[in-house]
Amino acid sequence: MAFYLSIKEIWRNKGRFFLFSLVIALITFLVLFTAGLGEGLASANKEYLEKIDAQVLVFQEDTDYSTIESRLEYDVLRNVRRWDGISDVGAIGFSNTTLVFQDGIEPIDASLVGIEPGKPGSPPAFQGEPIRTKQGKVVVIDQRIAKQAGVEVGDMLTLKSTQGTDDEFYQLKVAGISGGQQYFFQPSIFVSLQVWDDVRPKANVENNGGPIIPNILAVKLDDPTALESMSNFLEERVDGIEVTDIETAYKSAPGYAAQQNTLNTQKGFTFLIGILVIGGFFQIQTLQKVPQIGMLKAIGTSNHIVANAAVLQIIFVTLFGVALGGLSTLGLAMGLPAGIPVLFTGTSILTALAALLLIGPVGGMVSIRSALKVEPLTALGM
Asked: Residue 122: its pLDDT value, please?
C-alpha cells in the first residue's frame, strides 16, 4: 500500500518531481566534482611519493619534512644503510626542468627526480626498461608526458636547464615509460642521481664537481610493521635527520592541508545545502496535501503506511536525482582536458554517493513528522 501511494503521487505530479530531481542531480554533480577535484589535486601533489617502494623517508633535521628544503650529505646514506632492520636505502633528489620539442609542440614543465638505479625511489617502467646505470644519459618519463608529446621509448628528449645565467640544453634518451608519477603538480622525469646533479638548474655553476647532495632518503625496512620503532631508532643513531612515514611526508607539503581542508569544507556545505533543500521541498509537499493525508487517515490508513509512503517517495526521488547527477559527472569527466586535475576513484565516488543517498531521508524527516501529526478531523475542516 505504501509503495502504491508513493509511486502514484510521483506519477501524477511527475513534472514537479522531475524538476526537483534535477536539483538533487545538480547537488550530486557539485559534490562528486568537488570530490574528484580534491582527489586530483592531492594526487598531483603526492603521486610519486605515494608509490615509492619504501616505508619511511629521511629528511634533514628541522625542515618540516620539506623535500625542497631538505639537504643530506651523502655520508648520511651510509650511516642509515648500515643498521640492522634496514633492507635497502635510496637517495632521491628533486628539481625542476622544462622539456622542449620540435614540430610546434608546447614545452612541458616537469619535476626532475634523481634516483639510484634499483634502489627505493626508482620507478618501474611498464614500457621499455627502468634506469639501470648510474652514468647513462637515459630517462624514464611519466606516461602523461608520453601521451601529451607523443614520446616513445627510444626517442631523444631535450631538457632545458638554467646554469647560472645561461640556458643549457641536454639530450637524454627515453629508456622507459612509467605510470602516473606526478609530483608538485607536474609530471615527473627520472634520471640517475649523477645525471640529475649534472643537469639540474644551478645558481652557481662554479660549484660543479662537488659531492652530490640528495634531498631525501627512501628507506625500505625488513619488517614494514616496525615503522615507528625504526623511525625513532634512526633519529637516535644518526645525527641531523628526522624520519617519518610517507603519508605524513606528503601531507606536510606546503599548501596540501589547506587545499584539502578548503575542498572538504565546500563539500560539507554542499551536503548541508542538500539536506535543507530536500527537507524544504518535502515539507512544502506535505503541507500542500494535508487534506489528502487527513482523508487517508479518516478511512483507516495507519501512520505506519503514511510514514512508509513518504520515506519511499523521498528515496525514489533521491535515487533518480543522484543517478542523473552521477551520469552527468561521468560524462563531463570523460570530456575534460588532460590538464585539469580531476580524478575519480572508486572509494571517493562510493563515499560521496552513499552520503548523497543518506541526505534524502535525513532532509525529509521533518516532512514525515509533519505527516504523522496530521489529525483527520482538523485536516478535513471538521
From this structure: 93
d(Cα 127, Cα 177) in Å, to the nearest integer?
5
CA Rg value for the chain:
29
**pLDDT confidence tier of residue 180, bands split at 50, 70 and 90:** confident
How far is Cα 81 from Cα 369, in angstroms, rounded to an integer?
A: 67
Q: Which of 350, 270, 361, 276 is nearest to 316 (CA)?
A: 361
Cα dihedral sign, 124-125-129-134:
negative
Q: Residue 173, SS3?
A: strand
Q: What single-letter DSSP state applies at residue 63?
A: S
The b-or-e profile of 257-288 (16+ CB within 10 A means b, else e) is eebbeebeeebeebbeebbebbbebbbebbee
Enumerate residues 6+ apart whose C-beta is below 8 A from 138.
131, 172, 173, 174, 175, 191, 192
Angle between helices 14-50 and 2-12 (to 10 degrees): 100
The CA-to-CA distance between both ends of the chain, in Å, stands at: 27
Query: Distance (Å, rounded) from C-alpha 243 to C-alpha 226?
Result: 13
Spell out a b/e string for 43-58, using b for 16 or more CB atoms within 10 Å of the CB, else e. bbbbbbbbebebbbbb
pLDDT of residue 347: 80
Q: How many beta carbons lie within 10 A of that of residue 335, not counting itself?
A: 6
Amino acid found at 162: T
pLDDT tens, residue by residue, 81-102: 989 999 999 999 999 999 999 8
Q: Using CA of residue 334, residue 340, residue 344, residue 349, what is the dihedral sign? A: negative
Q: How far apart are CA 203 and CA 374, in angstroms?
A: 78
Query: Which residues are within 8 A (CB) of 280 and not within 5 positions of it... i.e. 6 or more apart?
Result: none
Residue owning grid cell 574528484: 36
Using CA of residue 234, residue 240, residue 244, residue 246, what is the dihedral sign?
negative
Query: Tens of pLDDT along 302-322?
Result: 767 767 777 788 888 888 888
* CB hemisphere CA count around 240 (13 angstroms): 11
